[in-house]
Amino acid sequence: MISSNTLVLLACLAVAVVLLLGLANMMRGGSANLSQKLMRLRVLLQFLAIVLIMGVVWWRSA
Question: Which NCBIfam families match (predicted)?
Answer without folding.
Answer: twin_helix
